[in-house]
Fold:
Amino acid sequence: MPYSKQRRDPIEDKVITPLLELRQAREKLFSGIREGRGENGFFEKQTSIVDHFFIRSVQESSIGRKLFSARKPFALIALGGYGRGELCLRSDIDVMVLFPSSLPKEAKMLTEEIILPLWDLGMEVGHCVRSLKDCTRLSLEDFEVFTSLLDARFLCGESPLYLHLRHLIEKKVIPKNAAAFARWLDDRNKVRMETFGDASYLLEPNIKEGIGGLRDYHQILWLSKVFFGLQKPRDLEYSGRLSHSQYASLSDETLFLSRIRNHLHDLSGRKNDRLGFQYQEKIAERFGFEDKESYPAVEQFLGRLHTAMSSIKSLRLSFAASYILRGCDEGSWTHAGKIHDGLRHEGREIGFASVTAILSRPGLLMSLFSHIAECGCRLSMEARRLTTEFHYLANDQYQSDPDNIKSFLEIIKGPYCFSALIQMHETGMLDAFIPEFGRIKDRVQFDAYHIFPVGIHSIHTVKNLKELPNEKNLILLDIMNDVKDHDVLYIAALFHDIGKIGKNHAERGSAIIAAILERWSYDRKKSEDIVFLVRNHLLLVETATRRDLDDEKAVVQCASIVGTVERAKFLYLLTWADSKATGPSAWNSWISNLIQELFLKILHIIEKGELASPDAQARNIAARNFITARSGANLSAEKVSAFFEKMSPRYLLYTRPSLILRHQNMADELDKAKSDGEKMPFRLHAEPDGDIQGCWEVSIIAPDRAGLFSEISGVLALNNINILSASIYTWLDGTAVDIFKVSSPLDSLDPNRTWEKVKLDIKQVFSGRLALDFRLGAKAGGKMLSGHKTPPKPPRVIVENNSSDFFTIIEVFADDRIGLLYLITSTLSSLRLDIRIAKIATKGDQVADVFYVLDLEGQRIEDESRLREIQNALLHRVGSSVQRR
Structure:
């Protein structure tokens, strides 16, 4: 091959080395990206720049010249993503030095001369030196090597060597490996699913390796080379394997993902394929998305992203199933032939008998999916293409046609309903038949709470109900068996978030679903139940997590809204399915117990006409008898009476006898500590909650004083203990009794160590030797260094007297962060408010902290100006802390 002389800069009269030329070219290219220009053709330009470096390096290599002079030819070959010409800013560069047979001793020096300079630029370079025999052997043994060679591209050197390599791969490797390779890819996709998840649904997807990511596109290319001998992506269209529209869509979507990956590399400053929350708004801005009313730019961007990844995933699945796996799957169905006029089974796939059948009978588009819901088959690639191209036939008349509506209801009832709905979603047929669904199908909520876009979340809610028989929760199973009209439940589940196109989505959604059901001429009674469920699908979870379930008014109000036993059961099942489909933090043992308690109380009110409230006198007598029996001779009747005299009525009514006995012993210890002269005494007892997994019950007794609850909550936060709820009581002798439900300590092997640390910290806070403000601030600052997932949202505060007859209720909605509860409670303390009940609900990165408060005289806050002052003070404190972060 020809060799060039060194190049010189004519102005500065210095040698322009290949490395210097590469650095200058990359800096110019990269700066264009950051300044919002030069993105067109970036990947080709980046690849060309690196190609030029290698070509010049080989041309100017003294070792290379020596090898060719000694008749030891070699070829430099690009592999993997570099071979495909897909180099992003921080992509790895994989190259191979190929020799015809044995490797000469100069091979190592050659690679060092060419490769080492790139490391000085911080570039990740993977390289290997192999012979033709090595390549053949490794391709047969290792499919990772095989795929890298499928992407091989000649750079420079001895071109016949490269052509010989291609010949060996095509004639000796592919014929032996094809079927096994297809199965290997199928297995790899299962690993990808377990490791990275379905990126077409996730809110922080892996752009490359997640299902629906760029790796799906690569697999289509590999399969086309192995099974059809295609060489370039465009050959997919030219050969007829993809239609023009399918290939155009695939090209557009992969380019979109590649551009995102490029900007992700730039913002991360490293090779990074996970689109974390912290990058999403910036990339959305770079892509030109702008905020619209009730539709932020970042959510528009994520909706577009999920559409792209869903399209790529669907095409890869169809391509593999239709062209590849059918021939490799030994367990393929033998059934083939028409199901009825217009539809045909082919292996495990279903499709149309002909295009003309669709045009003459558009209802086949719906019949197709009703058969999928019945038998669990999948769309053939051709059927997927035809459905996508012909769903325009679903006009207003089509959407109201009784036969099409009947087919859709059969889909809802079918055992494979989830598979049918997902494939309808992917092909666009679901929102073609129900345009209202199209408005929310790719809608994304930019938070850490919802793991799916709205459309997929809705379909998963249906899936949860369909799979409920597999659950071990006997209460859920009994309720599901009790309700009659499962169709009502499934339809409500599919459309419960149909109103998420603006604020008040439940109320908005009830109007939308009412219009849909009217269009379907659906049964009036069932329609009323569905509309009710959509309007009130948040009722149970919001009441259970944000209201005191011992407050009779809150439960009675909830029961009056529900009205009937059947609706209560519908609502309980929908709440479970919706929460489970939302994300792992939306349904846990704590929330499950709260909702179950509320549900049972609602049932009792509806069935009996009253709340099953404990009788105060009966509870008092039972508690006295329990303590007397357990204490025996250690506690006289007079002392028991004196002990009960100082307790508040609310404490006696809602505290179980065994816990009262525990508190009596703790109070005795506290009295002894006081008499011994102990300063700022307190007693703490913690034990696992016997009914709720992952939950502990903590009791703290101390002399009451202003700010006590706030200080305790701060210490718990300092020790990574999350408060779930708290009941705060003050006995008549001035003893404060705070009962917390908290998360389990992080140290599950030795939790007592954590509780001893909590006791020590409380003692230091009480004595003034530990500054909570400083410690919590430092802890939160350290946490911030690891990156905050989502941008801060403005806090919201509600102060009202309507939900309780006895307390003023304060609700604070804000970004979750270390020390937030301490900040809020210290603010309430400074406002001279007495917290009696606290409920803490966390939704991903958001919290809803609810406080039942009185003034220091034990009265609700009725003065309007003071209510506004409380609201403004909390907004200021919580909001200013967000800005300081």
